[in-house]
Amino acid sequence: MKHGDYLEIIRLAASAAGMEVTLSRRGFLLLSACAVASLSAFGLREALGGEAPLVILDNSKGMILADPSRCVGCQRCELACTEFNDGRAQPSQARIKIDRAMNFGPEGPTGGPAMQGTWGNGLVVQGVCRQCPHPVPCDTACPQDAIQADPKTGARVVDTERCVGCRLCQRACPWDMITFDEERQKASKCFLCHGKPKCVEACPAGALRFVPWRDITREGLPGGAAQSVLSAAKAKVCLECHAPAQKKPSAH
């Protein structure tokens, strides 16, 4: 394979991961979802330039894809989620969201002619965690580092021992997919049930599928305005990774 062929593979892998930026001379791009290894050996600086940010992606290995055309609104997925994760049947605490779009769809009663749900065109649009790529909004917003990657699946999971119930992760999620338990004062999110999502197993209509990860954060509109408060420590780390590489002063 020619050197130019390697460079094209790198470009395609970056595009598949939803990345349209180039890499700095300081690092390499880890694309676990695209199974690209040892990229630095192929001359990334020459291929993609040396003055752009360094971005390291550590994505989930899988994700849940929802098919609204198959959903019958039975809410068994919500029951399965809470029974497995919380030991109780409480759809309001589910990490997958069906009830909120049941009547009017994601747009609510203001959807007009495009209104979905039982009061619209009958389409029930499931709300599922998109397993966002780096920088993960909920993870980045957490001041306690309570949201960590599951070693098995790579999906972000809330460590309830660290969670202080500040709800900043809930405010940061563009799709409003963070669940908050009022009784325990703890946040939670979909972590793919350690690789065997119970909602997928429980769906009688085949409206949910567990598939290899891809970036779908650009598909569809966010569910609402997201607000994120970034701690000074995290902001410093982000700047080190994402700020454009500084040009070295020329020697005279």
Describe this structure in words.
The chain has 252 residues and is α+β, with helices and mostly antiparallel strands. 22% of the residues lie in helices and 9% in strands. The strands form 3 sheets. It has a two-stranded antiparallel ribbon. Strand 2 and strand 3 (156-158) form a beta hairpin. The relative contact order is 0.17. Mean pLDDT is 78; it is low at 16-54.
Describe the sheet with the most strands: 2 strands, antiparallel
Strand order of the biggest β-sheet:
1-6
Under the CATH scheme, the architecture of the largest domain is 2-Layer Sandwich
The CATH topology of the largest domain comes to: Alpha-Beta Plaits
Number of strands: 6
Supply the number of structural domains: 2
CATH hierarchy class name of the largest domain:
Alpha Beta
Task: Give the amount of beta strand, in percent.
Answer: 5-15%
Write down the overall mean pLDDT.
78
Number of helices: 7
From the alpha-carbon coordinates, what is the Rg to the nearest angstrom? 20 Å
Using the alpha-carbon principal axes, give the shape.
globular
Distance between the termini: 41 Å
| Helix/strand structural class | alpha+beta
